[in-house]
Amino acid sequence: MPDVLPTPSLVPLQMTAPKRGKAPRHFADMTPQERRDVVTELGHQPFRAKQLETHYFSHLTDNADEMTDLPAQAKSELVGALMPPLVSKIRTLEADGGATVKTLWRLFDGIKIESVLMRYPTRSTLCVSSQAGCGMACPFCATGQMGLTRNLSTAEIVEQVRQAARALAQGEIPGGATHLNNLVFMGMGEPLANYKALMGAVRQFVAPSPQGFGLSARNITVSTVGLVPAINKLAKEGLPLTLALSLHAPDDELRSQLVPINTRWTVDEALDAAYGYYDATGRRVSIEYALIKDMNDHAWRADLLGEKLNARGRGWVHVNPIPLNPTPGSIWTASDRDVEQEFVRRLRSHNIPTTIRDTRGSDIDGACGQLAAEDE
Fold first, then answer.
1. Is 325 known to sit in a ligand binding site?
2. β-bridge mates for residue 182, sequence order
3. What's the Enzyme Commission number for this chain (predicted)?
4. Which of 332, 341, 324, 287 is nearest to 7 (CA)?
5. 190 is in an annotated binding site
6. Which CATH class is domain 27-82?
7. Helices within 244-376 (DSSP H only)
8. Residue ranges of the domains in the chain?
């Protein structure tokens, strides 16, 4: 898990939804067998599929000119047919001396999404988007106020990761060439609401080279507002991913206001599913809790949260209070420092491991959705 994540905002946003489209099928949408089959159908030898895999997943390129081991005609035909341009960079914003880079991307149909690349002294983390917009309608979330435009395809998710990994490998981020280590699905969208594409991407992230990026499943975090059936399904995938539950309130009355899906699956149902995930995978669950001044930062709520977590067991969970990232026009703001510290003290008094997230990117509209909204 990274130490720092982009923080949520409270700006109500209205955006005109672009025309929705279905992304063209891409090499990254296919299984290894499907890649061999389609290469053969295009009139080329099956081993060309492995060459393409090596270039795409190991060399991190989709540029035919860089594929010098393929005949000119073959690489032109194969790249043209199997690697249509899906994600193009519009602009970037930098913070932390260039160690944090937020990128606004344009998808093939003109829709915009964001990702945030964060480099640390010993690792790097990419915050990935899984949807354009979000249908969960959380009032404190910039993306939630956009509404859902559409799901991303598997390849549109993978392309965010490939391009970030390439930027790191080529030394475009200060500090010299390095590798991408961690992925967090905490960008735009609710990942578990786009389950098929999410898992298609995850399978390629963890597949060994040259059929995937060879990342550790333990270094991939999937965040959710609490889609209980999908959490239960994820627990059966056989992958030791880290689950992060965006809770934000321990009581149903408040959480139903902050996270509307709570009217369908309550706090207790979401926590039960999260504990079930831990029980099935052995992976400690993270509880994400955005601290909002005079809204959810009361000491009694910290006590209630600690009691509910301990009622399900010990050692299964870690709480991450996140200071809210206030933005112009917000009706809410971050908790006062002394209130924040008391909230943490109360949780720790219940023996709940608790770590306040530092904030990165607050000066570059760090919360996912802000940059896309501004560009609109």
1. yes
2. 125
3. 2.1.1.192
4. 324
5. yes
6. mainly alpha
7. 252-258, 267-281, 299-311, 337-349, 370-375
8. 4-18+88-375, 27-82
Query: Is 127 annotated as ligand-binding?
Result: no
Our CA angle for 283, 287, 293, nearest 5°, is 165
187 annotated as a binding-site residue: no
**Residue partners of 370: CB distance under 8 A and separation at least 6:** 9, 11, 142, 327
Tokens 């989709």 sit on residue: 62
Tokens standing for residue 248: 């934000």
Closest CA to 187 of 248, 285, 104, 93: 104
End-to-end CA distance of the chain: 32
Which residues, listed in sequence order, are joined to residue 127 by a DSSP beta bridge? 116, 184
Kindly name the residue from 77, 114, 156, 288 that is annotated as catalytic: 114
Is 209 marked within a binding site? Answer: no
* Residues 323-335, mean pLDDT to the nearest whole number: 75
Inform me whether the pLDDT recorded for 299 exceeds 90.
Answer: yes
Residue 134 counted as an annotated binding residue: yes
Residue 163 has pLDDT above 80, yes or no: yes
Q: Rounded distance, CA 168 to CA 370, Å?
A: 24
Query: Which secondary-structure segment (H or E) carries 334?
Result: none
Segment 112-159, tens digit of pLDDT: 999 999 999 999 999 999 999 999 999 888 888 889 999 999 999 999
Please state, in angstroms and rounded to a whole number, the distance separating the CA atoms of residues 242 and 258. 23
Q: Are 128 and 187 in contact (CB under 8 A)?
A: yes
Q: Is the dihedral of CA 230, 234, 235, 240 positive or negative?
A: negative
Domain 4-18+88-375 has CATH 1.10.10.2840: no
pTM: 0.92
368 assigned to active site: yes
224-252: average pLDDT:
98
Tokens read off for 325: 């990232």
